[in-house]
Amino acid sequence: MTGKQVLIAEAVVVGGLALALLVKELPGALREVRIWRMVGFGAGSRRPR
């Protein structure tokens, strides 16, 4: 294997791990966003009451 092939293989492995982590954490992140919206955070630049 050449150095370029090793780098490509490492990039594929790291990319796969990152994708797996994203897929695993996505439902929790979506739940958090929903909670923030219900509470009132992240609604844009609204004026405080």
> What are the low-pLDDT stretches, counting only 5+ consecutive residues below 50?
none
Give the DSSP E fraction (strand runs of 2 or more residues).
under 5%
Distance, first to last CA: 64 Å
Cα-atom Rg, whole angstroms? 19 Å
> What sequence of helices (H) and strands (E) makes up the elements?
H
- In total, the number of strands is 0
Main β-sheet description? none
Structural class, judged by helices and strands? mainly alpha
What form results from the Cα inertia axes?
Answer: rod-shaped
Explain what the structure shows.
The chain is 76% helix and 0% strand. The longest helix is centred in the middle third of the chain and has 37 residues, at 3-39. With 49 residues, it is mostly helical. It has one helix at 3-39. It is built from one helix and no strands. The mean pLDDT is 87.
Please summarize what this structure is.
This protein has one helix and no strands. The protein has 49 residues and is mainly α.
Give the SSE map.
Layout: H1 3-39
Transmembrane segments: 6-23
Keywords: Membrane, Transmembrane, Transmembrane helix
Descriptive key words:
single chain; 49 residues; mainly alpha; 1 helix; rod-shaped
